[in-house]
């Protein structure tokens, strides 16, 4: 083909246009490819996020169930007492109002529905029929596992085995979770496989999809049995444990690339040279949105392994880190695990409020980071519990580190201009080589921490073989206390008279528990009462004392009687009813009974103690605040206390002979108490001089060894005289 000059000119004139078109085409293809890739990545991450949310929901529902199914009361109410109202309030409709579960069922060991609750279904039989085809296989599978003692999956976070699956109920996607109703204390013996079962149902449409869309920015989330809602939507299959697809979640996917390309299309048609700039902007926007998605996923992963308040590693992360350190250790490498627990943090948290407690916890974590070696791994594994893993550690270095940590935490913290004082106790376990067991290391550190706390707090203890023996001794003492409660002949209630300061006559009695062990002799209440609180025996011990006290009150009808009540006892929902029952049984006027409590009972976060106190006071029972002046911010709380009497702690009475001692303090307590209309009783009176001072200060009653020691009932009869006994009993 021959080209003329004209043709060549035309070609040259068109060359810039061809170049421009080529550039525009290249830019267009590049933009289209990048938008498609960005959209694909965004859709994939949204699908992964939905799968993660469903998995988390399955775990959450089972965890919600454990809060009510691992409970002695639940076992008794469904198996022996069958209290339908209680079951509905604790295992049934309450699960919907509190945890948003859509269904709750109690199943007998022979697989009969004893209780049924399903949103939108009033008939219980129909309610269970709606879920039976999907629930029964899970129930059968769980009963088989229970019968053979299968404990697979149980951990510190998972308290009982269970079965859960994704199913379709009446065309709706749902999670069905089955858990056994078991004893939390181990005191109730249950036949393996014969446990009552609790079934929870949570539908995955309706409000679940609404919350999913709002919390994770999904547009128009729907459920469908088959993916037939249009090609423009994205789908995530809902797959059961057997691999069956029960339906799909679909939504209008977030397509950052397509949105940006559509917005820039007019600009691309206007001028080619703008495409280069806009391509850069596009890339920047895409990268930013991709980073946001990546950041969201990274934040989810971070939250799974870190404490959200302090940013430290959490318990799950700690377990992985400790196992990794041990596995990577050389045969002669020594590692140390420090188990830390804050002293008095709960009092600060309850008294000053959780916001102050949270800020204090952040400051504690900061000091731990500043004090610990840079290579140490610090974790927060509980409310006020931390761990520190130190590699390549020598004992002298560990001891110096413990001293430094305790000193750092004991320095006052300043929050809102107010000094806050707490302490620190540390348990240490040292392990050598990679053959050590991480679980055993943690157990030893925990035992050492217990030893440090019982030695006076603000101390550290390094695990030694003798500590195992201490734990065994404590366990043996707990078993002996259980046996003593069963035997009934080792425990005895003593009575210490309380005298009127004005008339100097006995005005009331205080009941005090005593334990004479057949082999170990007398065991102090300071030893076995805290043991009863932590081992779940305080209810039985307190009931024994209260029953004996009521019997004595009936024998001496002109004397009131006081009984010490643990905050753990008062925190039981049934406590007020138990007191009412005993008073009626022995025919005792409620006003003759006085319950002595400490400030710990007034710091009950759940409010159960306060409800029991209110119910008992309305019934006529009186309350006294024991050991007043030794608690946290007692004077500040005195104006708000709902009690009838203040018992002044013996430490102030013993300080009368010291310069600027207890006289002024007692005078202030008596003045404030009388201004509020409260009576006062001074404890620990050991001399006549102390008695005279207390009378002059206006104290209403006196109690102490100078006046009378605690004595058994026979000695009390001798003290009061047989004539008085006969006269008052006639």
From TrEMBL:
Q: Which SMART domains is this protein grouped with?
A: EAL, GGDEF
Q: Quote the Gene3D superfamilies the UniProt record gives.
A: 3.30.70.270, EAL domain
Alphabetized UniProt keyword annotations: Membrane, Transmembrane, Transmembrane helix
Ligase keyword on record: no
Domain spans labelled GGDEF: 333-465
Give the NCBIfam families listed for this entry: GGDEF
Name under which the protein is recorded: EAL domain-containing protein
Protein source organism: Sinorhizobium terangae
Biological classification of the source: Bacteria, Pseudomonadati, Pseudomonadota, Alphaproteobacteria, Hyphomicrobiales
